[in-house]
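INFO batch 0412 | record 1 of 1 | parsing
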Amino acid sequence: MSTPFSKMHGLGNDFVVIDGRAGHAVDAALARAMGDRHRGVGFDQLAWISDDGEADVALTFYNSDGSTAGACGNATRCVAASEMARRGVDAMTLRTERGLLRAEARGDAVAVNMGDPILDWRAIPLARDVCTLHLPIEGDPAATGMGNPHCTFFVEDAEAVDLPARGAEMEVHPLFPARTNVQFASVTGPDRLRMRVWERGVGVTLASGSSTCATAVAAARRGLTGRAVRVDLDGGRLDIDWREDGVWMTGPTAHVFDGVWHG
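INFO prediction complete | emitting tokens
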């Protein structure tokens, strides 16, 4: 069976995009096969596009291990960039598990409103009622929901963290029954953060949109930064602005190539 796809990335956070509106289906087995970086195409997430009655498009996300993700901010921006260019518009709406999200073209960048942060322990979700701003875990992380669960550690030097070891350990911490993305962030200047990320179902990634939003929210809640911050990731820079209408994320997108999967 032949499945056309596009390869895209936002700051090195890379995706395969498949258009279900053309009749191409996706399941966990296909996501695992295509996501294999040695025997497949390789990606952090797969985004499957479908029609929606209210939004311009709907998106479903798969991780490279075949599990699903409730949100993928950089993939949302990438699909929005492609769709806005194709339609000749500078704004559109996309439906994800987070609901209806608005995306806007801003020069060479694309911004998306990722919605309000989830701060209630049940909805993140956590296994029990604890303070989400100071989890009872060594290192004093914060928990935030942005469509995915997030566990954010604020450290002196994010570069010094053994990310593969610490990320794998924390992803499956019993306080997070649905597993969690894990971030390590340092304050590097006024309203500026350096962040590294481990994504559940994927591993170390060069960037993560929902993780960056969650880290910015946690930093603002702790008084470490204001609500508008610049975040430096392994793959580049994202600008986050936590406004009254939601958490806006702005950054670059790139189309790498188109291909056809036979399998």
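INFO post-check: The chain has a mean pLDDT of 97.
INFO record closed
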